Amino acid sequence: MQTPAPTDYVRATSVANAIALLEEHGEEARILAGGHSLLPMMKLRIARPEMLIDINDLDELRGIRVEGDELVLGAMVTHREVLESPILSEHYAVFREAEKVIADPLVRNRGTVGGSMCQADPSEDLSALGAALRGTVVIQNSSGSRTVPLREFHEGPYETKVGPAEMLTEVRFPIRPGAGSAYEKVERRVGDWAVCSAGVFVTVKDGVVADCGIGLTAVGAEHFCAPDAEAFLIGKAPTEENLRAAAKLAGDASDPSSDQRGPADYKKHLAEELTFRALTRAAAASQGA
Q1: Does domain 59-174 have CATH number 3.30.465.10?
Q2: Which of left, alpha, beta for 35 (phi over 0: left; psi -120 to 50: alpha)?
Q3: What is the tens place of the pLDDT at every residue in 230-288?
Q4: Is the pLDDT of residue 289 over 80?
Q5: Cα-flanking dihedrals φ and ψ of residue 119, to 5°?
Q6: pLDDT of residue 97
Q7: CB 243 within 8 A of CB 214
Q8: Neighbouring residues of 163: CB distance < 8 A, sequence distance ≥ 6
Q9: Is the per-residue pLDDT at 1 higher than 70?
Q10: 26-54: average pLDDT
Q11: For the chain, which has fewer Cβ within 10 Å, the N-terminal or C-terminal residue?
Q12: CA dihedral sign of residues 141, 143, 145, 147
């Protein structure tokens, strides 16, 4: 059985205390939230932190609320809480649709929104959702906080804008009245990482697309999004022809690699097809709102 390398452990008493501990212990310290990303990497000794800073006692990082025209999720909100949140489902069906196909109940009960975002796995479902909805994250350090768009947050596989003595504290999503949203995913088996997934929102007003967002995961789309496809749809009627053309542009925005989950051309086809299906459902939901 593989076991992690020896490490020290401390429970943070506040966000400020956690940041102070990060500053004290330097780059060899890691935040422990749900642990479903970090602990497997520690068992494989891919990650070998010298200090784990447990933030599970920090209620200030929990909760889902509406603040002005934004939905605000604390970094320690679990996948299960997102799945079951009436606040999130009221505004975006895509939250529930995505969370239903993330891992399994054991992971959803413990895994957190902040942990998923900071893991920055190229196949992470919430990255596609966050890019589609054009969310933002709040990053805090000892000097204060800053807000970073999710479309700029990921710098590459397993790399984000969070610095060594910083932590993500909130994820925010703008509320868009009348928007429809949808999530489509293909996976090898239930609970697996995506072969490809597409998350979208569409707002239709006066018979044309007024706004939309398209997020893609596991297919190498830059910043998990397809801006050319979004721009194409704005001002056009959500006809099958236009939605298929936009989906084609989304497929063109992907740059997948061939691996055990399938060849690159198959994944590119999935990016196009899943985007079309999600756009079709989201546009219909917006027109029926």
Answers
A1: yes
A2: left
A3: 999 999 999 999 999 999 999 999 999 999 989 999 999 999 999 999 999 999 999 98
A4: no
A5: -65, -35
A6: 96
A7: no
A8: 139, 141
A9: no
A10: 82
A11: N
A12: negative
Mean pLDDT computed over every residue of the chain? 93
The domains of the chain are located at 8-54, 59-174, 179-288
User: Amino acid identity, residue 54?
Assistant: D
Report which residue type is found at 234: I
Distance (Å, rounded) from C-alpha 82 to C-alpha 183?
Answer: 14
| DSSP string covering the chain | ---PPP-EEEE-SSHHHHHHHHHHHGGGEEEESS-TTHHHHHHTTS---SEEEE-TT-GGG--EEEETTEEEEETT-BHHHHHH-HHHHHH-HHHHHHHHTSS-HHHHHH-BHHHHHHH--TT-HHHHHHHHHT-EEEEEETTEEEEEEHHHHEEETTEES--TT-EEEEEEEE--TTEEEEEEEEESSTTPPEEEEEEEEEEEETTEEEEEEEEEESS--GGGB-HHHHHHHTTS---HHHHHHHHHHHHHH-----BTTB-HHHHHHHHHHHHHHHHHHHHHHHHH-
% of the chain beyond a pLDDT of 90: 80
Q: Is the pLDDT at 40 greater than 80, yes or no?
A: no
Nearest residue to 33 (alpha-carbon basis) of 98, 132, 119: 119
Q: Which CATH class is domain 8-54?
A: alpha beta
Side chain identity, residue 261: R
Residue 49 has pLDDT above 90, yes or no: no
Q: Any idea how long the chain is? A: 289
